[in-house]
Specification:
single chain, about 150 residues, alpha+beta, Cytidine Deaminase, domain 2, four-stranded mixed beta sheet, globular, CMP_dCMP_dom, Cytidine_deaminase-like, Cytidine deaminase, catalytic activity
Length: about 150
């Protein structure tokens, strides 16, 4: 459920997206907030400026949280973002241990507004293969599971 406090912070994420456009960047903005609503960090998309396909604000903030927050603190934070996180960012958010994500536009709404947003091809994947070879480094790092 989205509260009035959530809505206020979500509007800030949309403002960050609008500011990104004025800087020549893609229109996506995000922020991380503590349970009391204090903004901990903000970011906007800089994919073009940085020539880096991973420069999404959600991923930047996930990295920041993973390096700057302990697990307990990260689990109590909320990310507010102007658009639903893509698959790349969603995976990073899970790994960073953030507690919650609130977004303004869904992926479906984004694609309706900008059809190119949904034009990514799928990448064929083959596997698994070479189990015996690949298990060696895994077992040496994590310990053999018998």
């Amino acid at each position: 459920m989205i509260t009035p406090a959530d809505e206020k912070l979500l509007r800030r994420a949309v403002d960050l997206a609008a500011r990104a456009v004025t800087l020549g960047d893609a229109p996506y903005g995000s922020l991380l907030a503590a349970p009391d609503g204090t903004v901990l960090a903000e970011a906007h998309n800089t994919v073009r400026r940085d020539d880096d396909i991973t420069a999404h604000p959600e991923l930047k903030l996930a990295r920041w949280a993973a390096s700057e927050l302990d697990r307990e603190t990260a689990a109590r934070t909320t990310m507010y973002t102007s658009c639903q996180p893509c698959g790349m960012c969603a995976g990073a958010l899970v790994r960073s241990g953030l507690g919650r994500v609130v977004f303004a536009l869904s992926t479906e709404q984004l694609v309706a507004l900008n059809p190119e947003s949904g034009a990514w091809p799928t990448v064929p994947q083959d596997g698994p293969a070479l189990f015996d070879a690949a298990r060696g480094p895994i077992e040496s790092y994590y310990g053999a599971k018998g």
